[in-house]
Design goal:
CATH class of the largest domain: Mainly Beta
Strand content: 15-25%
Largest sheet: 9 strands, antiparallel
Structural class: alpha+beta
Number of domains: 2
Radius of gyration: 25 Å
Shape: elongated
Length: 290
């Protein structure tokens, strides 16, 4: 296991404003009550701080309101701003990862995340943002972040992971239970689904309202979603098996190869046979439709 530490970054080969600027990344284990940061007293801003607690507890005051920061909790704050975060003597320790970066070129994303996530929010330790933060710290610990372009790409990737996580949480929280049930039904029965009415009945909604709501939530119509799942399965079968095109067509829910080939060409750009041969085009290991 690597040691705790804090690593700062200042790239002197030009502060290119077109790049995202990594300021510091760290992994700390705090037991001393002298650990106390005041967001209005710091002189190293403007910065954005993301901090994630892996064990123990700390405290955060934002605009006069006290929050407990416990295991699995994260917060993002502006520096400077009206906040304080500190270690409280009533706790045993506070262990966390953090990243600091300049807000340059990230103002829109930051405003969105502040609104969506609030002061403190929960993340699984195995979630992509936390895993990426740990990876960034490991690179810093091993002295592998050695140019501003790599540092910039890491900052952008991290912000996009937080952004993506926020959107996924938003979708999950906003999705009614009957729509979750309908989506699960499609995913379990996509080879046999025959009509929108069939799935709408699972959600106990009219065909037309169900279709509008499904499109709003997933970005696909119900039948497009069925097609997406069928083609993703077909691509795996074309790649990993010796089944004929006709056999694969029937396995994924099409009555014959002719219609399967037509749909495959519309979505992928070439026929199943051309995909399998991998000639004159990039041979994908897998393909996702979003």
């Amino acid at each position: 296991m690597y040691k705790h530490g804090v690593y700062g970054f200042r790239f002197l080969d030009g502060m290119d404003q077109s790049l995202y600027q990594l300021f510091a990344v760290g992994y700390e284990y705090i037991t001393n009550t002298e650990y106390h940061w005041d967001g209005l007293q710091r002189t190293d801003g403007p910065l954005i701080l993301f901090q994630y607690t892996v064990s123990g507890k700390g405290s955060l005051i934002v605009n006069g309101q006290l929050h407990e920061v416990s295991m699995g909790s994260a917060f993002m704050i502006d520096i400077p701003s009206n906040h304080q975060y500190f270690f409280n003597s009533s706790n045993d320790h506070w262990e966390f990862y953090f990243i600091l970066f300049r807000p340059t070129k990230l103002e829109t994303e930051w405003q969105f995340l502040s609104k969506e996530l609030g002061v403190i929010f929960s993340l699984e330790e195995a979630s992509p943002p936390v895993l990426l933060l740990k990876t960034m710290y490991l690179h810093a610990y091993n002295r592998n972040i050695n140019d501003r372009y790599l540092a910039s790409s890491m900052v952008y990737q991290f912000v996009m992971e937080i952004y993506r996580n926020s959107l996924n949480l938003h979708k999950e929280h906003d999705m009614p239970d009957h729509m979750k049930k309908a989506i699960r039904y499609i995913e379990e029965n996509f080879t046999t689904v025959e009509s929108v009415e069939e799935v709408a009945a699972v959600a106990t909604l009219s065909k037309y309202y169900f279709t509008r709501l499904f499109k709003k939530i997933t970005g696909f119509t119900p039948l497009q979603y069925v097609t997406k799942l069928r083609l993703e399965k077909a691509i795996k079968l074309l790649r990993d098996t010796d089944y004929t095109i006709e056999e694969i067509a029937r396995m994924i829910g099409y009555a014959n190869a002719s219609y399967f080939i037509k749909v495959f060409r519309q979505w992928v750009g070439y026929s199943p046979g051309e995909y399998r041969l991998g000639k004159n085009h990039l041979a994908f290991t897998d393909m996702l439709f979003k």
